[in-house]
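Re-run with default settings, no changes from the original entry. Doing this only to confirm the output is reproducible before filing.
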Amino acid sequence: QVQLVESGGGLVQAGGSLRLSCAASGRTFSSNTMGWFRQAPGKEREFVAAISWSGSSTYYADSVKGRFTISRDNAKNTVYLQMNSLKPEDTAVYYCAARTYSSSIRDPKYEYWGQGTQVTVSS
C-alpha cells in the first residue's frame, strides 16, 4: 500500500497564499499519478489538480487554473500544491490522492487517500 499524509493547511486572508504538502510512504516507487481533491461543508468532493509520475503533465480544475500549481519531488516522495490568490470559496478540507497504475491524467479514480488538511480563507 501507499500511505499519504497532508500538511500545510491553516487560516489565510483572501488574496493570500498557502503551500500544501503530501508525504508518501510504503510502495512509493509504484506511485504514478498524484492528485489533490477538496470538500467544503455540505458539498461533494471535487477534483482540484493532478500531476503525472514524471511531472511533465499537469491537469487543473477550471476553478483553480492560473492560481494553483501542483508539483512533485520524487526523491522526497512528496507532492505539493501551491495555492495563490486564495478566495473564500477555496475553503475546504484538502485531500491528497494517488494511484499506482498508468492511466489518463484526467482519470478521476484513485486508489489511496490521505486524512485531509483544513484550509480556511477569510474575506
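The first strand starts at residue 2 and ends at 7. The chain is about 0% helix and 50% strand.
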